[in-house]
Amino acid sequence: MGACRMKTLLVILFVLPLVTACAGPSKGQLDDEVWRLCAIDDGIKVYETVALPPDKFDKKIWADQFLSPHSR
């Protein structure tokens, strides 16, 4: 009886992530919803532009993540 329970538990543990991953909306459906909502709201509105202080950021990490190798 214990081996049967173990197999059942293993099947559940392997199948459950697959079922939950497939249960939600797809990326395409979410993209369509964003476009629909943007059309209703007349696009994106920027109410305030905030300047970020450069001394609060590590310049090496910023350069590695956001700059292309050709611009360095």
Describe the fold and architecture:
The chain has one domain (2-71). 61% of the residues lie in helices and 0% in strands. It has helices at residues 2-23, 27-40, 59-66.
Short description:
By secondary structure, the chain is an all-alpha fold.
Instruction: Name the quaternary structure.
Output: single chain
Class based on secondary structure composition and strand pairing: mainly alpha
Specify the helix fraction band: 55-70%
Number of strands: 0
Rg, please?
A: 24 Å
> Termini distance?
64 Å
> How many domains in all?
1
Number of helical stretches of at least 4 residues? 3
What can be said about the biggest beta sheet? none
Brief descriptors of the model:
single chain; mainly alpha; flat
Task: Please write out the topology.
Layout: H1 2-23, H2 27-40, H3 59-66
